[in-house]
Amino acid sequence: MKCLNNLTDQQLIHLYMEGDADALATIVMRYKDKIYTSIYLLVKDKYLTEDIFQDVFIRIIDTLKGGRYTDEGKFLPWAMRIAHNMCVDHFRKVKRSPTIKTSDDRDIFEVLNFSEPGADHKMMSGQSHERIRKMVDMLPEDQREVIILRHYADLSFKEIADLTKCSINTALGRMRYGLINLRKLMTEKQIAL
User: Fold this and answer.
1) Model pTM?
2) What does the pLDDT read at residue 114?
3) CA-CA 20 to 30 A from 3: which of 63, 93, 142, 172?
4) Could you tell me how far CA 39 lies from the centroid of its own chain?
5) How far apart are the C-alpha atoms of 99 and 42, rounded to whole Å?
6) Most confident of 66-70, 124-128, 159-163
């Protein structure tokens, strides 16, 4: 049995297009958390997130099977763009504008940590994460979006610019102003992390 985890995204896509369903399953497992969480941060509803997440992979499969996928870019930015567009389409349907509010208890800047911290560390960390989340919620929508895509999804500014349909300089500016505004909020509210 071959080890698919060591293959690149492009190799896995080519294998899938040649009929290897396990190759697609490997890509799904590789990126499901990032795509799912990015959708959730946009729609703030677990069930809607699951529906959109499934629709994203249905669209990906249709595109691959239809031979319309090109290897011009990386798979993840392409999949994230599909997810982002599907979220925007959802909000257009319900005639609401999308807002990015992190209403869950998880920190968007959190890095996976496999060691088990003590209860006091968890409590202090949770309080800090909650403060950051509330401050990020106070930012204008365009600044929130760039900060979430950069720090959570690990997208480059070029990928963020493509995803949000703006120039790289605009994405950089939104990030800069978002961070400036976060610093101001910390000062105004005398928040120490």
Assistant:
1) 0.54
2) 38
3) 63
4) 6
5) 6
6) 159-163
